[in-house]
Amino acid sequence: MVEQHEVDAVGHFVEAGLELRDSPFFGPESRIRATVHGDVLTRIVLVSPHVFRSMLASFRRIWLETERCHFRKIVAILKRYCGSAGRISLMKEVEAAHRSACRTRQTPRVPGLPESPLSPGDTIGLWLNTRYAHTGKKGRSGSFTRADFDEHQRLLGKGVSEFYLHSAIFHVGLCYLNLTRIAEQELRRWDEELDVRPSFQLAHAFGEDGVEDEPGGPTVERISPGWSPATEDRASRVQRVLARRAHATLGGLLSSMTDDYARLHDLLLCGRTVADVITELGHPLKVGDPGLEMTGKLSLMHFVDPQGTRQIVGRAAILADDTLLVTEEALEILESQLLAVRRALADP
To answer: Is 0.85 topped by the overall pTM?
Structure first.
């Protein structure tokens, strides 16, 4: 029988994993790349500092070995109590991918881009121990000092050193996101079959959305300093609105169908139904149950109860002919979120 402290550890992991999932650092617009002309490095593109640092708080909770929700600790718990052979197999794949992401560079080797002497895992450890979490004091064997950091920057250059950090965290973080999906399923199963659940309510450390109405309380808005609706273009506005947790189901579906967000903005505002919008994006909509078999389908999506019970209440699948097959329950969720998105776009 799973122990309460183990359930709580998985709960903490899922909490941090969901925060990572919602971070723009892991979103479709995230760009981490190096450009080389001939053998000359000419440009490095990284994620903005405020996005990176806000993501890092959740990443560290899973990365640090002293935390109860450390990646390897959670894998051990889930393997011990997992009720599905399929999920155990997936966990082993995620575990292998995590080992590779920590030990081996995941980005292609590019002429003109200096090679780092550190593994991706050591690169993360270097930056966390000397710049983002600690001051670089020598502790246990393998930790880094500020002198190590300065030498790394001297050897590679500041931009290249930071490029390797962003790349390492991105690939390790993808493993965290994949394990989060499995951990969510196990928490749901433990709740339904074993009547055990975390002893606390899972929540985002900094709120679940940019705008929230507290029950019986005020409206809470979280706005970046200097941001103004008057200076926001259509593409940025629709991406911001679709990224809200309350709109996540519709947002994830539409983002998988187009990257022309200015056009999507106009489609969403013109008063059409979900079927009209999705058909305009090249995916005719058909109501039906895609079931659990993946034959003939490119992807299968589970729709979770928007009231917060985390119960699966509907399904949808994109078929090989680009048709979107959805259950009636899933379509109701999409239509409800479409109305909310339209209101938010009209009054951002």
So the answer is: no
CA dihedral 27, 29, 31, 37 (to 10 degrees): 150
Write phi, then psi, for 31 (nearest 5 degrees): -130, 120
| Diameter of the chain measured on Cα atoms | 62
Locate 210 and state its tokens. Answer: 């940019």
121, 164 contact by CB (below 8 A): no
Give 311-328 pLDDT, tens digit per residue: 556 778 888 788 888 888
Query: Chain-centre distance of CA 108, in angstroms?
Result: 23
Give the containing element (helix H, strand E) for 55: helix 49-63
- The string of DSSP letters for 72-108 reads HHHHHHHHHH---HHHHHHHHHHHHHHHHHHHS--SP
**Across 278-305, average pLDDT:** 70
Dihedral sign for Cα atoms in the order 308, 309, 314, 316 = positive
Bridge partners of residue 303, in order along the sequence: 314
How far is residue 97's CA from residue 105's CA, in Å, rounded to a whole number?
A: 12
